[in-house]
Amino acid sequence: MLKNTIKYLSILLILNLMLIGCTQTTNLYELTKSEIEIYDKYSNTHDDNVLMGLQPLTVCKLYIHSGHIQDYETQYAFYIQDEMYLGWTKEEHMRGFSRKEKPQMKEEIMGAENLRVYYTQESNKANITWTHGDEERDANGNLFEYHFSLVKNKDGIWKVKFLPMQ
Fold it and tell me: Per the domain annotation, does 42 fall within a domain?
């Protein structure tokens, strides 16, 4: 029994080491069929209960999708509405704040590599990170990482922080 357990653990370790060097590219604009259904329902109602039980990455993708299709009213609905978090009004948002996105960001979102989601079930904060290509480096020569932040509201629903990408 112990011999088989060690054998299986060794195989898992080898598989994990093989994955470390792999880079999978993710298009954060692409929604699954169920994500599209959720988005459609949320965009029609802006009822946060539609988002209940969703993982941070799904909420991130839905938020990005709303900006991509220029549904700025729904995009604003994804933001955390809590006095603890400073933001702007819906009117300010609708006047065009979100449309000042840098043009090159579309490419970085479409070609996300090394995507990681950091959170625990007990935590009320989530951070999604990714890199894009090998050219963008920080001052230390490391790959530049993009960060997207979310928080749970008082009902335990993941919502987007104002200025989520910094």
Answer: yes
Domain assignment of residue 32, yes or no: yes
CATH classification at residue 148: 3.10.450
pLDDT tens, residue order, the chain (166 aa): 555 544 444 443 333 333 333 345 677 888 999 999 999 999 999 999 999 999 999 999 999 999 889 899 999 999 998 877 777 787 777 777 545 554 445 666 677 888 899 998 788 999 999 888 777 788 898 888 889 999 999 999 999 998 788 6
pTM for the predicted model, two decimal places? 0.75
> What distance in Å separates the CA atoms of residue 151 and residue 162, rounded to the nearest whole number?
10
Instruction: Please tell me the number of Cα atoms within 13 Å of 1 on its side-chain side.
Output: 0
And the tokens for 9? 């653990």
User: Domain of 147?
Assistant: 24-165
Q: Please spell the DSSP secondary structure of 29-61, one letter per residue.
A: T---HHHHHHHHHHHHH--GGGGTT--HHHHHH
Cα-to-chain-centroid distance, residue 156: 17
- Report d(CA 43, CA 21) in Å as an integer: 39
How many CA atoms within 13 Å lie on the side-chain side of 134?
A: 1
